[in-house]
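R.M. (postdoc): so does anyone remember the format we settled on? I'll just put the structure tokens first.
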């Protein structure tokens, strides 16, 4: 017997459902209750649209879908509980779950947010079981789903030890590390790795100082990353690299290590000191640490196709999303028409470009 329960915050989730999220966290910490708690508290505090849907089979949790609903002009829109801080979203599912089971959960979503115009879930692994299950389940409940590209993801399957890996890097990278390592040390520079303990808050302050001095746009939700750093420290996931120059932080890198994987989450450096290549030095230090001490099997640069990532990584995959429209509502029908027209126009332009270049 399949039933659906709804929770508004991870603090409300009972122990059996906690185990479902804990199983998901063994694949990615962004599937953990700790991640969702920080996202809700730092980005969506007091948001009535937060719904964590849980499917139970004879009382046992078998799937969960954290979502956020918003009101549009003529209906509601539902999207994954994710945003630009999220590198990978996925439904939490148990082995053997079928799309017909997941359709029961989505039917509850459909009814709870009527009139439902659309559902948007991203970013996801298009090769994952959950992606295919969601596509089929959305069709089952009468929605029309489409796939869309989110971003490229560069990563490194670790198959060498640190010395061998370094030897196989681009000669320019090795030369930069050698020259700038000596130059940085000669002017009072040093590199530090913070994992928690008494140095944690000093590390948080250093991160915030460097980020404020960097080229990056100020964070719209300034508490998310500091609280993520604290959350990672509490779970043993934190690897925060800091480059210091005469007592002043000039570069920072936030890496997250869990389940044999190192994720490079945030990078920043003070533009005034970029000639020291402190970011490159930090990447080298952290890469050596996660290979030699953490013995990870994968390093992941997460979001984007920035050229510098190819200096350190050697594999690329993609993250995609799902947008599904409800043709039984006016905004859903309009969205569906716009989607189909846009895809046909894009296909025609691509064909025209191919013919022109042929």
């Amino acid at each position: 017997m399949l039933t659906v329960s709804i929770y508004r915050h991870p603090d409300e989730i009972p122990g059996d459902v906690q185990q479902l999220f804990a199983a998901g966290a063994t694949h990615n910490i962004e599937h953990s209750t700790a991640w969702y708690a920080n996202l809700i508290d730092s980005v969506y505090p007091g948001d009535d649209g937060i719904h964590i849907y849980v499917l139970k089979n004879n009382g046992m949790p078998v799937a969960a879908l954290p979502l956020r609903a918003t009101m549009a002009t003529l209906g509601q829109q539902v999207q994954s509980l994710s945003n630009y801080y999220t590198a990978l979203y996925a439904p939490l599912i148990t082995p053997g779950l079928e799309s017909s089971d997941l359709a029961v959960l989505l039917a509850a979503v459909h009814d709870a947010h009527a009139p439902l115009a659309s559902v948007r879930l991203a970013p996801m692994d298009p090769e994952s079981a959950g992606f295919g299950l969601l596509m089929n389940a959305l069709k089952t409940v009468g929605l029309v789903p489409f796939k869309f590209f989110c971003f490229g993801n560069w990563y490194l399957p670790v198959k060498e030890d640190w010395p061998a890996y370094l030897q196989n890097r681009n000669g320019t990278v090795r030369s930069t590390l050698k020259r700038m390592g000596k130059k940085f040390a000669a002017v009072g520079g040093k590199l530090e790795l913070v994992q928690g303990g008494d140095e944690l808050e000093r590390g948080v302050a250093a991160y915030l100082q460097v980020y404020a001095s960097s080229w990056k746009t100020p964070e719209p939700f300034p508490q998310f990353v500091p609280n993520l750093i604290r959350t990672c420290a509490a779970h043993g996931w934190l690897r925060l690299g800091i480059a210091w120059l005469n007592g002043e932080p000039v570069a920072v890198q936030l890496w997250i290590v869990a389940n044999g994987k190192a994720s490079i989450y945030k990078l920043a450096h003070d533009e005034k000191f970029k000639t020291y290549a402190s970011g490159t030095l930090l990447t080298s230090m952290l890469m050596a640490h996660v290979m030699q001490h953490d013995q990870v099997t994968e390093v992941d640069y997460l979001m984007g196709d920035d050229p510098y990532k190819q200096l350190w990584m050697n594999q690329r995959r993609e993250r995609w999303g799902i947008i599904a429209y409800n043709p039984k509502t006016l905004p859903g029908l309009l969205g569906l028409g716009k989607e189909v027209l846009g895809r046909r126009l894009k296909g025609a332009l691509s064909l025209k470009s191919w013919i022109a270049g042929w």
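R.M.: ...and that's the designed sequence above, right after the tokens. Also worth knowing: The chain has two domains: 2-150+319-357, 159-296. The chain has a mean pLDDT of 93.
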